[in-house]
Design brief:
23.9 kDa protein in glnII region; RlpA-like_sf; 13 strands; 17% helix; 226 residues; alpha+beta
Length: 226
């Protein structure tokens, strides 16, 4: 008789526990909300561009509105894409200040959300059109030459290592030659991981080709080394 009561009591406790977990999960207590879907992958960095918070992109047209959130401190910045670059999203200095952690130039854990589409002004034609003729809505920042493997400006992230780079399209181990066409300085780098850019140099590589005081190499060519 005592053994039977013990089994009944244990079964009752199990039912109550299961009900508690179910209620908690339904109210959002037992599990965290699902991670928001990011429209960009990889780390986010910034350019030295001045002005109000904004961004450039190699995926979104001028006028697109994006929300960038740093998951390490839950700070967000809403930016408008103002031109092309070599990254899915490259923040300017003001936007980076809104979301960065002190002393860090790269946001590795992030979410980028598209919150508004580009607005086409009356008479401007469809995106990718100038009037009624095919063309670019805005001119590219820098036109690559000699069959450059990447388009747009090149920037860097802070890393204590020898010259290297990350990329959103080249696999780890790929070797690239990056040339600053404004001073003809060149660096040869190996891809060491993923990022949100076609090529994102680390600080050592950037030091080899940058002009003094500039954090962006606009006029460049990137060559894939065999």
């Amino acid at each position: 008789m005592k053994l039977q009561r013990k089994h009944v009591l244990a079964a009752g406790v199990a039912v109550v526990a299961a009900a508690t977990v179910a209620v908690g999960t339904g109210l959002g207590f037992a599990d965290s909300a699902p991670t928001r879907q990011s429209v960009c992958s990889g780390s986010i960095t910034f350019s030295a561009e001045e002005g109000a918070p904004a961004a450039t992109s190699n995926q979104f047209p001028v006028g697109t509105r994006l929300r960038v959130t740093n998951l390490d401190n839950d700070k967000s910045a809403e930016v408008t894409v103002v031109g092309p670059s070599g990254s899915c999203v490259l923040l300017n200095a003001a936007a980076m200040e809104l979301v960065r952690e002190p002393g860090r130039n790269v946001i590795r854990r992030n979410v980028v959300e598209r919150i508004g589409d580009a607005v086409v002004q009356p008479g401007a034609g469809r995106p990718g059109m100038v009037g009624d003729r095919p063309g670019s809505v805005s001119p590219p920042a820098a036109r690559p030459v000699n069959g450059s493997a990447c388009q747009g400006a090149i920037t860097f992230f802070d890393e204590a290592a020898g010259p290297a780079a990350t990329s959103d399209r080249f696999p780890i181990g790929t070797r690239l030659r990056v040339t600053n066409l404004d001073n003809n300085k060149t660096t040869t780098v190996t891809i060491t991981g993923p990022s949100g850019s076609c090529v994102l140099l680390n600080s050592a590589a950037m030091e080899q080709i940058r002009e003094p005081g500039k954090n962006l190499v606009r006029n460049n060519t990137v060559e894939l080394l065999r």
